[in-house]
Structure prediction request, 411 residues.
Amino acid sequence: MNITNDFKNRFNNPFTALKHKNFRYYWIGMCVSLIGTWMQNIAQPWLAYTLTNSPFLLSLIGIVQFTPMLIFSLFAGVIIDKFSKKKILLFTQTASLVITLVLAILVWTGKIQYWHILIMATMLGIVNTIDMPSRQSIIIELVGKEDLMNAIALNSMVFNLARIVGPAIAGIVMGYAGIAVCFFANSISFAAVVVGLFFIKINVVKRGENKETRILAEIKDGLKYIYRKKVLLHTILILAIVGTFVPNFNVLVPVFAKEILNQGEAGFGLLMSFMGFGSFLGAMCVAALSKSGPKKFIIYFVPLIVAMLLIATGYTNIYLLTGIFLALTGFFFICFTSSANSTLQLNSKNEYRGRVMSVYTLVFAGSTPFGNLYAGLFAEHFNARVGFAACGGIIILLMIPLLFVKKIRGL
Prediction:
């Protein structure tokens, strides 16, 4: 009987957050939208690399798409804390639909040029600067604190299920129907989220009184809040390292697949599906263990495991082995990001959550331009093998001081 109770205390139904009707509408819309997003995530870098044959110019797409997050994320946090997240998401999802539709038409008509992709990526980056932290911080208003970690894990689960299905579909579609179909599919998929949002009735969480009215003052107040709470500060610092040097797959994998493994579109898409499969299993694991809350071990030590897997990936010659290493990387990467996300939200007051999650977006997604540039330069001047090894190696070097501080302070 004690063993049964212990099992129940440690594990829970990984779909428990779906008992909330509002979250179901939101989650189902995301299920559809994210498959389209991952179809474009596969088609766009392949298109850019085909047009330019340059790893550096390929990395520039990621740079311009994520630079707006680097510049404007802190301002977005203030907006999110002041206005309805539902209305914000209705605007951002509709804007994304229009932008991707224009890109799809350019590809379909054969008029697409490299600079078109740069402009569209920049516009999507501006929209995502508000969209990403809004999607993160609305979850607690859909499920409450008790099911927050489970809901975050479910979001990761569907995101990574889409990483399995989307790339596989994209690889086939690009090979047989053309790249443009992937962009059209993504554009249409945003409508699913918009429809789901119309059915949602938000349970607004109670906010503390906020006397600050100036945007810069509120940003400063939010940063001070994070600095004072060491659990937030340390999590943010590790997120900055991981967010900069791990998710550079859009730069490294297409080059690695084409130049090292001699693969075409379908082979590239399947490699990304391997990573999505591992990530999906990681999200399932986090969802099943969500009752026990986020673990410090995952926050501090899993990044080192991910770093070693990146190095190992770079020095494989066998296609299947590369896929397995990418799957393991995805598994541990999602375990880390889900735990870090939950740690930040569960340790934030309601009136600061939007600003905290905007900093999350800043260090996790806003740092991507630096990571893409870093990985792209190594791949350009050496090769994709060295690019993977350089990303893994610098994570280990940067994590050592943080682990030393953790040991000294007994965190």
In short: Residues 45 and 250 are 6 Å apart (CA to CA).
